[in-house]
Amino acid sequence: MKLTEVQPTAEKPAVILVRPQLAENVGTTTRAMLNCGLTELRLVAPRENWLDERAIAASSGADALLRAARRFDTTAEAIADLHRVYATTGRNRFMVKPVVTPRQAAQELRGHIAEGLRCGVLFGPERTGLENDDVALADTVITVPLNPDYCSLNLAQSVLVIAYEWFQAGSPAEPKGMTKGATPVALKEDLVGVFEHLERELDDCGFFRVAEKRPVMVRNIRNMLGRADLTQQEVRTLHGIIHELVTWRGKKGEEQSS
Amino acid sequence: MKLTEVQPTAEKPAVILVRPQLAENVGTTTRAMLNCGLTELRLVAPRENWLDERAIAASSGADALLRAARRFDTTAEAIADLHRVYATTGRNRFMVKPVVTPRQAAQELRGHIAEGLRCGVLFGPERTGLENDDVALADTVITVPLNPDYCSLNLAQSVLVIAYEWFQAGSPAEPKGMTKGATPVALKEDLVGVFEHLERELDDCGFFRVAEKRPVMVRNIRNMLGRADLTQQEVRTLHGIIHELVTWRGKKGEEQSS
């Protein structure tokens, strides 16, 4: 990727890892970031060297972000040049501060940046998360709605969720309409059953003349019939059609041999 | 967690890993699933034992899903009892099949399940992704919109994105309105500057009598002022106010000493 793409830019929020413990997690974080087009990484007092081989390996090709990362001693220094800062927290800190979801945060970040405001998102250490003093420096808290019985995202997964929502907020997509069958929808085993019935008969009658073409021909047939969104009744009908064709072929054979 | 929570249920889509290579990735997949309330895991011809110690460790407490996972020899068998199957692919397979985003898929899955249809999502092996024959068995393809210059989600990250969207689709949240400042918004360094100015003076005048209470009092003050969404002009005004109060205190001291 071009080096220009990893230079600090006011067009995207900065990802700020506060006191990350493991270099490997800094590497996987850059992988999550770059998948979603985020390129600016800031590190507050990282415990390990974010350019060591474990981090580079974990970045899986996104190491340009590691090399461009900037280190700061304190969270206050890391956010000094920003206008809007979000803090990600797993649990409620009981501070009087707005709390939003990642999706809402992504909308707000797009809005702030459209207004020319520079933004960043804080992520805490692996074990403990952000300290309250870090959260107090932020404008808004981001909490990811998760299974209340089991919330256990690792650092890179938390960054991925925020970065993913940021990227999606920039590419709104029209929801696709849902198809509905009037009669009961066929189970997959019914569908595979009629596929195999047809392919068996096509083998017998020598339809697949060129052996190496058989796999792609089978796939095309399955895709074609699969798109039909068959009902259970339609599957039965198909079995009948195949059976009739074969029987007719059998009769035809008799006629020819007679 | 209760064992009942990890029993197969028609209320949630099943996650189907096709020929996963590493047991550790199966473990991290269950961690991603449970964070988003998904509990049914199906495995098609996994290369390694999904109950070995690496998988259990990687599941990070979600191992109940590993123990409840079911193994199948083929993809067709793994989806036999489902009505609607989605296939996740990184690249375009050029099959004539509907392609949706994870968000659209989540909406459709909620819709299908509301209609009483059983659903599942296919994920391919780490290196190669799903084979075209697997994709051909699915009704719809899911492709995650990502940075076109760098698409490199690992298996558990791909599952997390789909599971995350599934969970979010069940808990719609009202977008929070965006605040806008008429005058230029203060930079964080301006804000921290006035915080420190105030706290310095409060230390001098003995406002923080109980030392152990100082940190929380400082946080509360910072949160209070931080919520004010100060402009640069307001920050200058605050500095002036603090300065005036201190000068007055100094004068007062002189009067007392005189």
Walk me through what this model shows:
The structure is a homodimer of 258-residue chains. Mean pLDDT of chain A is 86; it is low at 173-181. Chain A folds into 2 domains: 14-168, SPOUT methyltransferase, trefoil knot domain (Alpha/beta knot), CATH 3.40.1280; 188-257. Helices cover 47% and strands 10% of the residues of chain A. In chain A, helix 1 links the parallel strand 1 (14-18) and strand 2 (41-44). In chain A, helix 1 (23-35) runs parallel beside helix 7 and helix 8 runs parallel beside helix 10. The longest helix of chain A is centred in the last third of the chain and has 26 residues, at 232-257. The first copy, chain A, has 258 residues and is α/β, with parallel strands linked by helices. The first copy, chain A, is elongated, with a radius of gyration of 28 Å. The first copy, chain A, has a 7-stranded parallel sheet. In chain A, 41% of the residues are buried. Chains A and B meet through helix 1, helix 5, helix 6, helix 7 and helix 8 of A and helix 1, helix 5, helix 6, helix 7 and helix 8 of B. Chains A, B: Keywords: Cytoplasm, Methyltransferase, S-adenosyl-L-methionine, Transferase, tRNA processing. Chains A, B: It is an enzyme of class 2 (transferase). Chains A, B: Homodimer. Chains A, B: This is tRNA (cytidine/uridine-2'-O-)-methyltransferase TrmJ.
